[in-house]
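Pair request: fold both.
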Amino acid sequence: MFILHKIFEFLLDTIQTILLAASVFLVIYIFIARPFQVSGQSMYSTFKDGEYVLTNLITLRFETPVKGDVIVFKAPNDPDKDYIKRIIATEGDNVFIKDGFVYLNNQKLDESKYLQSNVRTYGESFLTEGKVITVDKDEFFVLGDNRPASSDSREFKPIKLSSIIGKSMFVYWPPNAMRWVKNPYYN
């Protein structure tokens, strides 16, 4: 009888521990932070294919993303996929592409902190060379850092605030690539 009681206590403690751990995990996953695996080359050299990024969900509840933030969002053309891109322009900004460079509010955008010097930006189906667009309220114009390999706002228009999952915060895998994700304009 004593042994059965001890086994029961052990099982009860184990179940309680598992339930507590699962509850903590769910709260963190739903409200605070979520992992995201980079798939593809669209953000190279900032992120490499296969890296895992911790995405901060909670900041969206208190502040709107800003230019330079790297965000994870629902792909406009396939809501089952998530994309990772950099915010280039926000509400009220005018954006156009000319001679391989991005212009923001009629000024050539300095992207030297996150783009390799030989990277050029060319128009796509939505934002063609020389076409000026104005970013609407609660929208964001996003681009991948590897422009030739990126499907982004040049193709699918600015994204809605409601499609943003979170702000990229920390690369945690592989271990030799661990680093904070910084906004080049505010760090």
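--- second member of the pair ---
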Amino acid sequence: MLEIKNLSVSIEEKIILKNITYSFKKGNVYVIMGPNGSGKSTLASAVMGHPLYKLDHVSKILFQKEEIQDMSPELRAQKGIFMSFQSPLSLSGVTVYQLLRYPLSGKMDPLKIRNSVKAYAKQLHIKEELLSRSLNEGFSGGERKKMEILQAAMLQPKLLILDEIDTGVDVDALKRISQVINDLKSPDRTIILITHYSRILNHVHPDTVLVISDGQIVAEGKKNLALEIEKKGYSAVIKS
């Protein structure tokens, strides 16, 4: 599904990721953990094509065996990559219905879009009044995260990258968000969860846990790796 080769990424001349090579398999759920500033979100942003992040000339990103490192974020999204943001932006004058209408045009009629959005909103306990307001304007942190997962559920991407979707949400919201993530699991979809905490693993069970430190993948394992980090800290798995 997603393959990164010799991925080195810098921002403003500062090197953040250092020569990472890894293959993310179709149908699998991955959790990426690591200390603050380790490069977790940079990896996600590089895959999505954030313009501020510069890739080394030998770095390759392949999505479904096609090189995408030179594609715009918009084209990557059209090909089936969705990334949620740590701090979702507000869009004045644009409702979630309007935001979804363009990418779903030709796939779903407006009435079906509206009904599906309402159904996911009910599942996520999003107040219906928020659906008709400017997206994320005046929303709480938890409401913004719910809106991100609602959009992902509507768009049904082939590659779903969730950057700290569990940060700033209460226990009940985390359960509902996790339920939608579990509903999105599919043999044809790869899911990557970036998190600081293992609590989401009480609800979502990954196939693989990766640890990034100092711009490199330093550990790989199963759920018990995340639990060990929660108990003992990153020093238990990061070799000095």
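Observation on the second member. The first helix runs from residue 40 to 48.
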